[in-house]
Design brief:
homodimer; 205 residues; mainly beta; Pnp Oxidase, Chain A; 3 helices; 10 strands; 15% helix
C-alpha cells in the first residue's frame, strides 16, 4: 500500500510538545480542521535552530499536498540545511477571525485559528516530486494558474528549493464566539463584542 | 540620560544573521519601516528553542513601546522560561499586500512587508512597567480602549506574563510593485499583475 492509499487517522496523536500548559480547551488535534487552516493561510512561519544554537523564524509560501506541508525556499537561503538530510523545524499558520472586546482588560482576546507543526523537514530532491509541488504552489495562488503561465525552465528549477514537512505532530488552537465576561462586570457601562477581521484577496488571475 | 531620551539610530545595525544569503535587494534595516509593520500586524510569531533542543514557534499578541517589543504570554505557558532571566528568541511579523502573478511560474511572488527580530527576551517583573504595557496592549486593540474597560484586578494581573524583546537586531524584507517578467516572456498570452490583499477589521469598540 503506498503512502497515498494509507488511510490516516482523523486525529493527530497528541505529544508532550503539542500538549498545552493552559487554555487546554482551545487545543484540538483534528486533522481536517488543521488542514483547512493551512490551506487558507497565505504563508507559514517556519522556525529552526541556527548554527549558533539560537532560534530563527521566517515567513515562507507553502502548499499542503496530502499529509505533507511543503515550503518554498531557495538553494542559497539561510535555512541552515548545511548538507543535513533532515532537520527539526516548527511551522505555524494563523488566521485571525476577530478582535474580542470584553468589559474587562483581562478578557480581551482574539478569535483565531492557529496550527502548529513539529517535524523533521527534508529537502525534496526527487525531480518528479519537485515538479508536482511547484505546480501545486502555483495553483494555490489561483486555481489552474500553473496552466496559465510558463513552466519553470531548468535554470529556474535549479534555483528553487523545497522542504517537505510531514504532518504528523500537529495541533490546532482556536477561539471563537463572544467575549467572556465576569458576572460582576455584566452591568459595567462598557461596550463589548467582536470586531470581525477578514483578509480579502481581490482579483486573482 | 534615560533610555527614553537616548536618541536611537534610524538604521538597525546589520549582523551576520540579519544578512540575507540572497534577495539582498529586498532587505533593509530601516527602523521606522520595521516599526510600522510591527504596529500594523495583528500578531507576531515567536520562536524559541525548547528544552529538547528543537525549535518552537507560536503566535502571540504584541505591542511595541518605543524600542521594545512586548509579547503577551501566560505564567503557565510553554515558552520555556524555566526560571531563566533571559533567553534567545526570534520574532516575526508579516503583512501580505498582494499576490503577484507573473507570466512564468518562477516569477510568481507576493508583495509583503516582513520584519524579523533576533534578541534575548526577558520576563517583565516591574509592576509599573507591567501595568503600562498591559494598558498599551489593550489600547492597541482600539484607541483608548483601556479607559473603556475594567482594569485588571490583582488575581488577573498575576495570571499574565509579559516578555520584553529589545529591538536592536532587526531586519525588514519587502517586495512591492508589478511582477518581474523575462524579456522572452513578454509576448506570452498570459494575464499578469498583482491581486491586492488587505486585512480589514470591522468596527473596533
Amino acid at each position: 500500500m503506498s503512502a497515498l492509499e494509507c488511510p490516516h487517522s482523523s486525529q493527530f496523536t497528541q505529544t508532550e510538545r503539542t500538549t498545552p500548559k493552559r487554555s487546554r480547551e482551545r487545543v484540538t488535534y483534528e486533522r481536517e480542521a488543521a488542514y483547512q487552516v493551512l490551506d487558507e493561510a497565505l504563508f507559514v512561519d517556519l522556525a529552526f535552530v541556527g548554527p549558533d544554537g539560537a532560534p530563527r523564524v521566517l515567513p515562507t509560501f507553502h502548499v499542503r499536498v496530502g499529509d505533507t506541508l511543503f515550503v518554498h525556499g531557495s538553494t542559497g537561503s539561510s535555512m541552515g540545511l548545511g548538507g543535513r538530510d533532515e532537520f527539526a523545524v516548527s511551522a505555524t499558520a494563523t488566521i485571525v477571525d476577530g478582535l474580542v472586546f470584553s468589559k474587562s482588560w483581562f478578557h480581551h482576546s482574539m478569535n483565531y485559528r492557529s496550527v502548529v507543526v513539529h517535524a523533521n523537514a527534508r529537502l525534496v530532491t526527487d525531480e518528479d516530486e519537485r515538479w508536482e509541488v511547484f505546480k501545486a504552489l502555483i495553483n494555490r495562488m489561483a486555481e489552474g494558474r500553473a496552466d496559465r503561465s510558463r513552466e519553470a525552465n531548468p535554470k529556474e528549477n535549479a534555483m528553487s528549493a523545497l522542504l517537505a514537512i510531514p504532518l504528523e505532530e500537529v495541533s490546532i488552537k482556536q477561539r471563537s464566539g463572544p467575549p467572556v465576561e465576569e458576572p460582576e462586570d455584566e452591568d459595567l457601562p462598557f461596550a463589548n463584542g467582536v470586531a470581525p477581521v477578514s483578509t480579502v484577496v481581490a482579483g486573482r488571475l
